[in-house]
């Protein structure tokens, strides 16, 4: 795996770290896209992983696109616009699709600015925790662009349509307190406590049976766009599988015996 994204597993929890701190962790380059997608697919295939944390190295979570690289390509993009859709489809748009496939619960530990595609990356995660110095902006309009990475789908689901419109139309930056107030993040903690806070949530998640965690996440993802009757059919089928697991039997037995369950992942 590329060193642009660090993959560290400790027990049932994986921490992914965007690792281009000198450039504020942009995610638009093909190498970084490949590394993020590979890391998510690796977690999905490894059933020992029950929770994950995504953060950034250095002082930023992610600056999103690399404006210097973008400036160098401006003229060629303008001359051959027909190539741009393919650039996005085979580049940064692979990231939200990989997150959509991911059955592992993942927490964004936003340690600094999350700007443009960096904000949208945080929105791809299931839970967002911010350090006090985190900043957020859906800033594409400021540079004459639109969210080509799924932000128009992701942001309204995180903060509601009105607030998403305000952020996208103005491109203005909001601080961690405002992000908490509008529901973009679920908590704000001192910067020095960010990773330990995210780890604490990840541990509470990972304490639960792996199969039911993954199925619960899949139902929540599908519930964003699926009819109720269809989701109920999916839930019934998944419940049949859940009832057959050793971890379900252990949970029920432990409850009746008034002891802490010991889950095996089976």
Structure description:
The structure is a single chain. The protein is an alpha/beta fold and 266 residues long. The strands form two sheets. A six-stranded mixed sheet has the order 1-2-3-4-6-9, sandwiched between helices. The chain has a three-stranded mixed sheet with strand order 5-7-8. The mean pLDDT is 94. The longest helix has 16 residues, at 30-45. The protein has twelve helices and nine strands. β2 (13-18), α1 (30-45) and β3 (51-56) form a beta-alpha-beta unit.
**Corresponding CATH architecture of the largest domain:** Alpha-Beta Complex
Largest sheet: 6 strands, mixed
CATH class of the largest domain: Alpha Beta
Strand order of the largest sheet: 1-2-3-4-6-9
Shape: globular
**Helix count, per DSSP?**
12
Under CATH, the topology of the largest domain can be stated as 2-enoyl-CoA Hydratase, Chain A, domain 1
Structural class based on helices, strands and sheet pairing? alpha/beta
Q: How many strand segments?
A: 9
Distance between the termini: 29 Å
What value does the Rg take, in angstroms?
19 Å
Average predicted local confidence, pLDDT: 94
- Please tell me the total number of domains: 2
Uncertain segments of ≥5 residues (pLDDT<50)? none
Residue share in helix = 40-55%
Strand-and-helix sequence, N→C? EEHEHHHEEHEEHHEHEHHHH
CATH superfamily of the largest domain: 2-enoyl-CoA Hydratase, Chain A, domain 1
Strand content: 15-25%
Task: Please render the helix and strand layout as text.
Layout: E1 5-10, E2 13-18, H1 30-45, E3 51-56, H2 67-79, H3 84-89, H4 94-101, E4 106-110, E5 113-115, H5 117-124, E6 127-131, E7 135-137, H6 151-159, H7 161-170, E8 173-175, H8 176-181, E9 187-189, H9 194-206, H10 210-223, H11 228-243, H12 246-256
Parallel strand pairs: 2-3, 3-4, 4-6, 5-7, 6-9
Antiparallel strand pairs: 1-2, 7-8
